[in-house]
Design a protein that fits this description.
Oligomer: single chain
Distance between the termini: 27 Å
CATH topology of the largest domain: AhpD-like
Number of domains: 2
Shape: globular
CATH class of the largest domain: Mainly Alpha
Structural class: mainly alpha
Number of strands: 0
Number of helices: 9
CATH superfamily of the largest domain: AhpD-like
CATH architecture of the largest domain: Up-down Bundle
Length: 175
Amino acid sequence: MPLVTSDDVDADTAELLTALGDLNIFRALAHHPKLLKRWLVFGAHVLNKSTLSPRHRELVILRVGWRCQSEYEFGQHTVIGRGVGISDDEIRLITQPDTSADTHWDAADRLVLSATDELLADYEISQPTWDEAAQILSTEQLMDLVFAVGQYSITCMALKTLHVPLDEGVPGFPE
């Protein structure tokens, strides 16, 4: 699907695209301005208002991007993840089949990644994982984790289906 330009949309949507930084994801979703505006509200909570730490939020999003094979999402959040202190080695480790087996991660990181994998595989966090995670995360944080996985899964679906290209200067998957 071709990306819209400011000339293709009404003035309000063109202004919104400018305010959002004119990223390809927004230029694709602007084909449906009402959807874009409503999606932004929920996305803003997950990205900016979540009770998860920025590190855990980005680990979740990167894992979802990898597991869903959305190069756009993975690339964007590689940049954001680096900004919150996730190393390039950790970004590469997120692409491993079983992150729970890797000794690099601390207990909290491992739990967040395991919960993400369970949600993607089974559409729920198992009771043992939930119980263990509840020892270090609040109920709100666990709920934000569930909704982050859901938000970014649907975003990955849209990005891949709409064939949204990487933005200039954004990396794709690690080598």
